Predict the 3D structure of the following.
Amino acid sequence: EAGSANGGIWVEADNTDVEMDGFGLTVEYIPDALEGYLASWTEGTIEDTISETIEEEITDLLDQYLSVFEMQFEPLDNVILDLALEEIEVYSGGLNITFNVATYSAAPLTDLPEGAGSLSTDGDAPTWPPANVESIALTVDDDMINQAIFAGWAVRLREGLVMEGDDVASLPIPAPLGPFARVEATVALPPVLTDPVDNETLSGIGLGELDLTMEREDGEVNRLNVGILAGVSIELEDGALSLDLDLGSDTTELAIGVREVASTETEASIRNVAAVMLPVALGFAESYVPDFNLPSYDLSQMGFEELEGVELSFSNLSWERTGNGWFTAT
């Protein structure tokens, strides 16, 4: 029996049955009755000893073998991804391997409220394996993605993003918002995956409390507080996983609050221009959001010499939402 608990793998072997056939014991100079009793006692002791040895050896061997499925990676600086084996199931077409996954910040987040964390949703995993799988498929709970987003937000987006110089000069934002000399963005709330905003997008994503301080080239400052609901797809290229925002007018909802307005403008004019131009600016700024680098796995660690030099990695996967907040890639 094997399983995982507290981030580790445990193995237990018991109820082994050892039976010796044709065992005999001859001892000179003692009565036959005593010799028979001694033979029976010795046989039982040997069987028990062999059984205990087998249980210990099997436990050690399985523990060493299954420990290769206990992995830790750093897909982003200061973001840790832990995987621990939950279950291996053999079926007619291959193997189902289930992992428990935890993604968290390596840096202490002492300034967050007690109990702060990513959104957890209910929903059973889809029927597995999917009907269209050819060689390998992967299914992921949105809780895992939200956990990764939360960790990435905690160590990157929450601290703020500053763009100036050539970075902001390339943003095609006209007056009265631009042209920019400097833009500072902070995200006070972690982004969260939501239901799809339409039938064409894989999922939705909600972004709250996006605070934008935009200094124009003339020194005037506009400051906005923005909430966004947009479509999103999952992209995987060269082992890097990213969320690709769909900021089209039919897939995006904006809520814009004006906190500070340039002395030459009105609050209404800033809000109206921002409603049109912010999706454009966010599309350009998307490249500043870091990708998650997915690890490759050396299959020779499983103990098979035939797999020496063979690595398991993912690229160019096709994703679909399979209901109940799960995503399947094939």
Remarks:
- The longest helix spans residues 32-66.
- The two ends are 30 Å apart (CA to CA).
